[in-house]
Design goal:
Elements lengths: L1 H21 L3 H24 L8 H12 L4 H11 L4 H13 L3 H13 L7 H20 L6 H10 L7 H13 L3 H14 L4 H16 L3 H13 L3 H13 L3 H13 L7 H10 L3 H10 L7 H13 L5 H18 L3
Helix pairs in contact: 2-3, 3-4, 4-5, 4-6, 5-6, 6-7, 7-8, 8-9, 9-10, 10-11, 11-12, 12-13, 13-14, 14-15, 16-17, 17-18
Pfam family, one: Sel1
Protein name: Sel1-like protein
InterPro entries: Sel1-like, Sel1_AlgK, TPR-like_helical_dom_sf
Length: 341
């Protein structure tokens, strides 16, 4: 009797829910998937840009973008490509291509940068510009449609002249708009532009510092370095090291190098020569190692080692042409001193 009652109830429940399940058209199912993907993507942006007073957390952002990717969210796929740039350029390229084919303007921007700088693909500035123009058009239209989280990206394109004539004033305007909407990364970008394009009065210095500080407090890694550097230059070494360590813990190379340099002389940190030398080696700062051994700074003078590290530095083809010229001159001089050709 109980079995019959259970079967009857099961049949009744099935009859009640079946029409709603069966009536879900493919379009409705697709819409639900789109909404789920977008919800996850927006959550990822909160951690990527520090929206809604969230601390920036790239690992959490990446996790949400990965979840959104499973629902086919094009911009989430593009964000994953951007995060992988210069770490796994092949995978970044494949993701950016997939995102662009799905209509992502951000994906087209990532592809443009890859062609611009020859990351994984052959350098081709003509192809890069085609992708930049496509990205700019899509992003501009999406902002007009209310997707204001793209403001920082559009500002970035004006900043570097990607797909549009470079316009620093327009970039500042858009960064400010984005910052006012809670975009922490835009605060850093605005501060960076002020540093390089404004007359640096005392008031402007203070404005720049507070933009960086606001962003640093939200865990923005480059801003943490900038705040640390500001305090070091002001002679406030303990405060400086506090922020540099926060940046270094997130893997920011410049912060790690500055802490290593401070460790040579014991400013804000204990003297630790072994730590400093290891950091320079791991981070491939071969120029500094060459300099230390050339002049015997903190280490016994060793011209053979100095030459070795200068040659490594030169082989790494630094972007700084003046530095490359200086390194080549040092190599020539040391070879002459050591009687080498």
């Amino acid at each position: 009797m109980k079995t019959l009652l259970f079967l009857a109830l099961t049949a009744l429940i099935t009859a009640m829910i079946s029409p709603s399940v069966n009536s879900m058209t493919p379009n409705v199912a697709t819409q639900l998937q789109t909404e789920q993907g977008n919800t996850l993507y927006q959550k990822g942006l909160q951690y990527f840009y520090g929206f809604n007073n969230e601390l920036i957390d790239i690992a959490k952002a990446t996790d949400f973008f990965e979840q959104a990717r499973r629902f086919g969210h094009a911009d989430a796929i593009a964000r994953l490509a951007d995060i992988l740039l210069e770490k796994d350029n092949k995978e970044a390229y494949l993701l950016a291509l997939e995102a662009t084919e799905k209509g992502s303007g951000f994906g087209a921007l990532v592809l443009g940068e890859m062609y611009q700088y020859g990351w994984y693909v052959g350098q081709d500035k003509k192809v890069a510009n085609q992708y930049f123009e496509k990205a700019f058009s899509i992003l501009q239209d999406e902002i007009k449609a209310g997707k204001m989280y793209h403001l920082n990206t559009l500002a970035y394109m004006y900043d570097f002249g990607y797909g549009v004539v470079e316009d620093i004033d327009k970039a500042k305007e858009l960064y400010r708009q984005a910052a006012n909407l809670g975009n922490v990364v835009s605060k850093r970008n605005l501060a960076d532009l002020y540093k390089t394009t404004e007359v640096l009065t005392k008031e402007k210095h203070e404005e720049i510092f507070h933009l960086f500080l606001d962003a640093a407090e939200k865990n923005e890694v480059e801003s943490q370095y900038e705040v640390g550097e500001y305090y070091i230059e002001s002679g406030e070494f303990e405060k400086g090291v506090f922020w540099l360590k926060k940046s270094a813990e997130q893997g920011f190379k410049k912060a790690r190098l500055m802490i290593a340099n401070l460790s040579l002389v014991g400013l804000g940190v204990p003297v630790d020569l072994d730590f400093a030398l290891n950091e320079f080696e791991v981070l491939e700062d071969y120029y500094t190692l060459g300099y230390l051994y050339e002049f015997g700074t903190g280490v016994p003078q060793n011209l053979e080692k100095a030459l070795h590290y200068y040659e490594l530095s030169y082989a790494h083809k630094q972007d700084d042409e003046l530095l490359q010229g200086e390194v080549l001159e040092k190599i020539t001089q040391l070879k002459a001193q050591l009687g080498k050709k």
